[in-house]
Amino acid sequence: MTVQGTCDPRFSQVAEEFEANLAGRGEVGASVCVILDGEVLVDLWGGQAAPGRPWERDTIGHVWSCTKGATAICAHVLAARGELDLDAPVVRYWPEYGAHGKGGTLVRHLLSHQAGLPALREPLPPGAFYDWKLMADRLAGEEPFWEPGTRHGYHALTFGYLVGEVVRRISGRSLGTFFREEVAEPLGLEFWLGLPEEQEGRVAPTIPADPPEAPPAFYVKAFTDPASIPALLLAHEGGYMALGESDSRAAHAAESGAVGGITNARGLAGLYRPLSLGGGELFTPEHLAAMSLTTSAGADAVLLVPTRWALGFTRSMDNRYLPPADSEGVLMSGTAFGHAGMGGSVGFCDPAARLAFGYTMNKQGPGLGVNPRGQALVDATYRALGYQQVYGGIWLAPGD
């Protein structure tokens, strides 16, 4: 398959891995972007966006939970301006949220997956996932599954409404509008939370992962224990996770701050570009340091594997010692943070390396982290910078 774009010779290993992904590792269509010191040094794309349609420079796709990084940045923009206190109770901004013992939930609990609301106990009507008010009201009236702040569990589908409603209450704008006006447009990003209809023709539809030999523990629990959090998460989402629904016009148009973002590698890397430069146009170095600190780590009450979270972002996670079905994580340096998306897309920054990275694709991998194709590109990027991988999967800078 033809690979197009540009690649600085220093990152030739990234181009080689990208070509290998397309040639023999099951990649169908994809893009990768590496920004170093604010300069785009890798911008590659290739393969097929859809049958008979090549992946072009302007092809975009669904990046699933990479969206959470964009939503978190919206909250941090407000915090950096002094309009949002991350240590304040959520009820300061969203009074109705205090129902059923949630009055002590802090904003930082929402961002670090400690809020205790990864699912809803009762079913949702079809299409409810596209109704912002309905979702916010249901979450405000729900009882937490654990005391907020006492443990963490991935809020896969609810994160966007929890954090996004705080953004909406403070700014008076919908999450998608705030992201567009305060982040995407100022940074020149083709990245949408709520895709305009005129952009539909550019989207590469998602290709589901091939069935794994053994499913991850999350899915085993969901399909064997109907009262479990994984089962409730998948069953009570208004039909969004039905096969093909995420490619519908309704799904693309919805301002879903957990899983609905649409962009390409250039947009993902561009989102993290200012963060790779010490905060850039968005944050002071002091706020950047605070937003990147690990706030929750260890056994995840939802994913059932170890996870590590900063305030809205993934930290490096090495799960390769687990059974193959649960072995996917994301291997970065100890100073990097960002977010992966279901099936393997990923965007992150590494302020110490002054690096921003993005990878998107249409053919998903079967695991819950960055797929091996994406990880190969991340690894090649760090190798090109002279980093070495040490115990725990951490990439270590030269001289460290």
Describe the structure.
- There is one protein chain.
- With 400 residues, the protein is α+β, with helices and mostly antiparallel strands.
- It has one domain: DD-peptidase/beta-lactamase superfamily (Beta-lactamase, 3-Layer(aba) Sandwich).
- It is built from 12 helices and 14 strands.
- It has helices at 12-24, 67-80, 107-111, 132-140, 159-171, 175-187, 217-224, 229-235, 249-253, 265-276, 285-291, 372-384; strands at residues 3-7, 29-36, 39-50, 53-54, 60-62, 203-204, 262-263, 296-299, 306-309, 337-340, 346-350, 355-361, 388-389, 395-396.
- The strands form 4 sheets. Strands 1, 2, 3, 4, 10, 11 and 12 form a 7-stranded antiparallel sheet that branches. Strands 6-5-7 form a 3-stranded mixed sheet. It has a two-stranded antiparallel sheet with strand order 8-9.
- α2 (67-80) packs parallel to α5, α2 (67-80) packs across α6 and α7 (217-224) packs across α8.
- The radius of gyration is 19 Å and the shape is globular.
Give a brief description:
The chain is an alpha+beta fold. It has a single domain, classed as DD-peptidase/beta-lactamase superfamily (Beta-lactamase).
> CATH superfamily assignment?
DD-peptidase/beta-lactamase superfamily
Major β-sheet profile: 7 strands, antiparallel
Mean of pLDDT: 96
> Which spans have pLDDT < 50 for at least 5 consecutive residues?
none
Shape label? globular
CATH architecture: 3-Layer(aba) Sandwich
Reading the helices and strands in chain order gives EHEEEEHHHHHEHHHEHHEEEEEHEE
Could you tell me the number of beta strands? 14
Give the count of helical stretches: 12
CATH topology: Beta-lactamase
Which structural class best describes the helix and strand composition? alpha+beta
Radius of gyration, in angstroms, nearest whole number: 19 Å
Domain Beta-lactamase-related: 18-367
Protein name: Beta-lactamase family protein
Pfam family, one: Beta-lactamase
InterPro entries: Beta-lactam-related, Beta-lactam/transpept-like, Beta-lactamase/esterase
